[in-house]
Amino acid sequence: MPVVHPALAPYLRTITTYDVAFGGPGVHIGMPSTELTFVLPLDEPLEVSWDDEPLTRTVGWSSVSGLHTTAAAVHHGHHQRGIQLGLTPSGARALWGVPASALAGRLLGLDDVDPGLADLPARLADLTSWDARLAVVERALLDSLDRHAQRPPRPEVGQAVALLTRGRSVAATAADVGFSRRRLTTLVQDEVGVSPKSFQRLARFGRAHDVMRRSVLAGEVSVARVAAECGYADQAHLAREWTGFAGCSPSEWVRREFPNVQAVGAGPA
């Protein structure tokens, strides 16, 4: 995974290049998380919708999705290449000049979010190396950071979001930052676009998704172990949350995303 520039590190959690061959056309499940997703496809426009709902479908050479609590359906052909970035909620202010709440639950293109970055896909089109593409993306984001120079959210809100991301309960987070739960809910909702409880659930689910994915790739999948490691009451609790966020059970997710894996642990999923 490419190294994030220090100036972008508070706002850009991940930057990933992908070059994937598929057995044929299909749909990849874009999982909810506490990151805003920014994708720059290289070979063909990206086609995305919420839960494969036609009325929400977008097609373009860039894709920006705010925080969401339902899965995205990412349509693909036989081959996809591109660059995917995961922004922190504060990255929306810093890089696009708007709070994350303005993008929550939305699928947009770069020209909708920041016209100053609208030419970025065209600038990548003729480049032939990943290093060159990543250098152009990095320079564009550094320029965007300078252009917007947004004030960060008030420190208490930033602290609250960080605590919730780490799994702190809503009540404990409110006490730590000195707000009532009602006040905390208003401030967090205004900043990120989802309630503190939903944000905390997204953070826990994101950890579970990461652990599950690593487990699948290692050939050691156990839903019960993932549930215990990520703070769920039991395997059934994780299965309910997974179905609510991903639109399918953990077992079905593995079958769809990793078709060569034969089984997912023991017991119901």
TrEMBL record:
Q: Which InterPro entries match?
A: AraC_XylS_family_regulators, Homeodomain-like_sf, HTH_AraC
The record's section on Gene3D superfamilies has:
Homeodomain-like
Report keywords, A-Z: DNA-binding, Transcription, Transcription regulation
Record-annotated HTH araC/xylS-type domain positions: 139-256
Whether Ribonucleoprotein counts among this entry's keywords is no
A Pfam family reported for this protein in Swiss-Prot or TrEMBL: HTH_18
Database matches in PANTHER family: BLL1074 PROTEIN, HTH-TYPE TRANSCRIPTIONAL ACTIVATOR RHAS-RELATED
Name-wise, this protein is Helix-turn-helix transcriptional regulator
Say which species the protein is native to: Nocardioides hwasunensis
